[in-house]
């Protein structure tokens, strides 16, 4: 049986569970994530940050502590966008965007189009 802890600002959990941070996902992406995680058999800490929380310091402190982070660039508010280059530069961070004008790929090659990479990580495959 899976155990998924949903954590939002300003909280942290200090345990050995696999930790995932999702920043500013759209409702569609949250639904996809929920469907994917419902079938997992591992313990997870799912940190969720949305613009309404207005605690960007929480993300700054957390981004280096989690196992993997996903940022929906197109859905970020202006305050979160101020720190995007820092977030995207982290080796464990993957970003989703359809914006072809800002060259995020110069900062990181970790662009993804969906959560399939996360699904592979959770299921134990690195495809």
Task: Give the SSE map.
Elements: E1 3-7, E2 18-23, H1 27-37, E3 43-49, H2 56-62, E4 68-72, H3 78-82, H4 84-88, E5 93-96, H5 116-123
Parallel strand pairs: 1-3, 2-3, 2-4, 4-5
| Strand order in the sheet with the most strands | 1-3-2-4-5
Estimated structural class? alpha/beta
Radius of gyration: 14 Å
Pattern of helices and strands: EEHEHEHHEH
Distance N terminus to C terminus? 25 Å
In words, what does this structure look like?
The protein is an alpha/beta fold and about 130 residues long. It has a single domain (about 5-125), classed as 3-Layer(aba) Sandwich (Rossmann fold). It has helices at about 25-35, 55-60, 80, 85-90, 115-125, and strands at about 5, 20-25, 45-50, 70, 95. It has a five-stranded parallel beta sheet, with no helix packed on it. Strand 2, helix 1 (about 25-35) and strand 3 (about 45-50) form a beta-alpha-beta unit. The model has no long low-confidence stretch (mean pLDDT about 90).
